[in-house]
């Protein structure tokens, strides 16, 4: 834009000053310099500062914008942004917070954190509904933040009523009464202590004092009431009726059992460094449906940042050994990050970092003992391979389930658990296989994989009515990369005639030994951290009426599950096994019992010189005839194949009663004649009447007559 000359400051009515310009917004300034006078001219230009703060692009977030309680200090952050919405990194702005009834608040203050953030703190004194106006900018030129005015809901303080005590002031025992623990008196003292000092700085009361406050004459402790009281005293948000979620374990237990619990008051508030890393997400939200608590990659990256910082700050494992980021697994993350960070709110980790419900796009099955960094790399690669949106949400149990109420959310029946509800919403399952394939020995992992493959076998649809997918990913330290075996063709395979070749090449890098370990899966031999989970899952598979009883040692339901899993992994590794010359009899047997709907095998690479007629005959006899609907077999370039292979395939095609789509590529390499092509034609003619699509490539076969 063309900028006018600036007015003469000494004589406003006089002529403008030449060489001095009044810059407009979005103006570009050009300077013409000589060849030798840079050093003299440059200092005269002055300095160009940061972009200006735009109130319309700036925003506020934090617990102070939620439900507040009288006498509970609260705060929020103001984030200054430029005209492009980018966060500023310097302070110095004038920020003013104005309440509709300032007399009902105390200690209202604004702190400049000198990094583009401003902390607004206040103490509510009166219950009610109030408005908060926040402006930013120079006096006389200030503007309101986006979203102003903010509505603040302040609720009354918690009142604890005397139980079973008459004739005295509330909260006091009768004069001369037995010296039994008075719940009201002790609990109120605890609350006063927490409210006075704040949860993070509070001196932890003696455990015996906490337990005695809720102990009955029989010596049992009402832990549900104790947990809710302490959590609320620490400033946790309650529901509309002041109710907290139910305590995750039995409400009434012995004093010794209660002493072993990790109550909210016993968990240290998360450290300052953790609060800093979580600050951009810590406004959080409440998500009632557990299947809508999936994690986005940016939130998983936040976990990685936290664990890296934690290791720098002397995180140790349960044995006291220092941890490094590659060693940190999900057991560590739950103990050192998830529970401390969520203690004050007693919520799931997703509710801490999300701003709204995040429905499950993909369900993740994995073992908690794998490195979290490996896990994140696998999901990052899956996101890329499937060409998913950046905000695609992966459901991960440790972050989705409320770790303060995990037993309640999982439930007593796996068929109605949070896992099942998430899978019912997902497009498919991503199975993350750890380096040692320990996941194949864990009962929850096996059950999740079984349910995923069962969805395919029964034709159940996934997200948006599409086929339910089952993808397998792992991180290989030798290749220093995450590699996946995906269901069918995916975005990473592209399109066109080389699609199958690209898929084979991509998946050939998957460590073969991990796949073969899946053939050792026996759900009846699987392990669990809690024996009750193992009993529940095995009895559910066996369709037992009582899920808590000792499970059967053998059952046809176990065998069916094992067959489905073995078949899925046989299909995933059949081509690789043929390429390296492995005996295929075990693969073939598993494939025949797999009940698969879809099978895609492209025999390229080393198979072009190693694949023989006997291998194809074995494959043809092993196709799951009663379930297969979609079959792709690519044999182009396989020079050792002859009419024997074609005859075997033709015979198999005649028995595939549900086949709908078929693609056979037999060009170039295989040596076919009229006999082989005739056998294929006969098989197709006498086979399935449900066939909808056929692609048969027998080009470049010189021995075939017209």
From TrEMBL:
Domain of life, source organism: Eukaryota
One matching Pfam family: Filamin
Filamin repeat coordinates: 50-154
Designated name of the protein: AbpC protein
Organism expressing this protein natively: Symbiodinium necroappetens
Gene from which this protein is expressed: abpC
């Amino acid at each position: 834009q063309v900028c006018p000359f600036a007015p003469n400051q000494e004589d406003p009515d006089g002529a403008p000053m030449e060489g001095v310009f009044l810059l407009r917004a979005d103006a570009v300034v050009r300077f013409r310099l000589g060849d030798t006078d840079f050093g003299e001219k440059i200092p005269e230009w002055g300095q160009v500062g940061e972009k200006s703060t735009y109130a319309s692009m700036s925003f506020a977030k934090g617990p102070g914008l939620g439900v507040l309680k009288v006498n509970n200090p609260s705060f929020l952050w103001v984030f200054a942004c430029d005209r492009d919405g980018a966060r500023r990194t310097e302070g110095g702005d004038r920020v003013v917070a104005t309440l509709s009834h300032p007399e009902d608040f105390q200690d209202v203050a604004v702190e400049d954190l000198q990094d583009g953030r401003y902390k607004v703190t206040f103490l509510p004194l009166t219950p009610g509904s109030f408005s908060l106006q926040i402006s930013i900018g120079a006096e006389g030129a200030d503007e309101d933040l986006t979203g102003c005015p903010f509505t603040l809901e302040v609720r009354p303080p918690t009142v604890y009523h005397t139980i079973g005590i008459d004739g005295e002031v509330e909260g006091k025992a009768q004069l001369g009464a037995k010296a039994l623990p008075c719940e009201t008196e002790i609990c109120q003292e605890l609350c006063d202590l927490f409210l006075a000092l704040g949860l993070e700085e509070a001196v932890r009361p003696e455990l015996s004092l906490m337990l005695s406050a809720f102990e009955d004459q029989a010596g049992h402790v009402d832990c549900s009431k104790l947990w809710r009281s302490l959590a609320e005293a620490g400033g946790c948000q309650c529901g509309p009726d002041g109710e907290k979620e139910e305590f995750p374990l039995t409400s009434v237990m012995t004093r010794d059992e209660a002493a072993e619990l990790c109550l909210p008051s016993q968990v240290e508030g998360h450290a300052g460094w953790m609060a800093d890393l979580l600050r951009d997400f810590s406004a959080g939200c409440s998500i009632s449906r557990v299947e809508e608590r999936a994690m986005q990659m940016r939130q998983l990256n936040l976990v990685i940042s936290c664990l890296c910082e934690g290791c720098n700050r002397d995180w140790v494992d349960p044995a006291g050994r220092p941890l490094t980021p590659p060693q940190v697994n999900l057991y560590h993350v739950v103990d050192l990050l998830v529970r401390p960070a969520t203690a004050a709110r007693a919520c799931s980790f997703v509710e801490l970092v999300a701003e709204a419900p995040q429905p499950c796009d993909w369900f993740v099955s994995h073992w908690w003992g794998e490195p979290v960094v490996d896990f994140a790399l696998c999901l990052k690669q899956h996101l890329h391979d499937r060409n998913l949106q950046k905000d695609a949400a992966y459901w991960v149990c440790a972050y989705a389930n409320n770790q303060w109420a995990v037993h309640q959310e999982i439930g007593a029946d796996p068929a109605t658990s949070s896992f099942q509800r998430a899978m019912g919403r997902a497009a498919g399952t991503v199975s993350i296989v750890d380096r040692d394939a320990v996941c194949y020995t864990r009962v929850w992992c096996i059950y999740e994989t079984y349910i995923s493959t069962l969805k395919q076998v029964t034709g159940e649809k996934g997200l948006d009515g599409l086929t339910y997918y089952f993808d397998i990913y792992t991180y290989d330290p030798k290749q220093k990369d995450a590699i996946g075996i995906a269901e069918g063709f995916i975005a990473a395979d592209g399109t066109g005639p080389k699609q199958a070749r690209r898929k084979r090449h991509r998946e050939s890098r998957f460590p073969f030994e991990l796949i073969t370990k899946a053939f050792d899966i026996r759900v009846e031999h699987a392990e669990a951290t809690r024996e009750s989970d193992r009993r529940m899952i095995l009895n559910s598979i066996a369709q037992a009426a009582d899920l808590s009883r000792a499970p059967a040692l053998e059952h046809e339901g176990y065998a069916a599950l094992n067959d489905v899993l073995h078949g899925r992994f046989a299909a995933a590794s059949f081509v690789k096994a043929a390429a390296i010359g492995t005996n295929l009899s075990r693969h073939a047997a598993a494939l025949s019992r797999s009940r698969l709907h879809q099978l895609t095998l492209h025999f390229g690479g080393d198979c072009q010189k190693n694949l023989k007629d006997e291998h194809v005959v074995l494959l043809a006899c092993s196709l799951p005839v009663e379930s297969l609907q979609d079959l792709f077999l690519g044999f182009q370039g396989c020079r050792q194949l002859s009419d024997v292979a074609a005859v075997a395939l033709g015979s198999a095609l005649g028995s595939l009663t549900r086949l709908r789509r078929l693609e056979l590529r037999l060009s170039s390499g295989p040596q076919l004649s009229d006999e082989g092509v005739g056998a294929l034609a006969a098989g197709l003619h006498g086979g399935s009447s449900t066939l909808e699509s056929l692609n048969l490539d027998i080009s470049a076969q010189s021995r075939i007559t017209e």
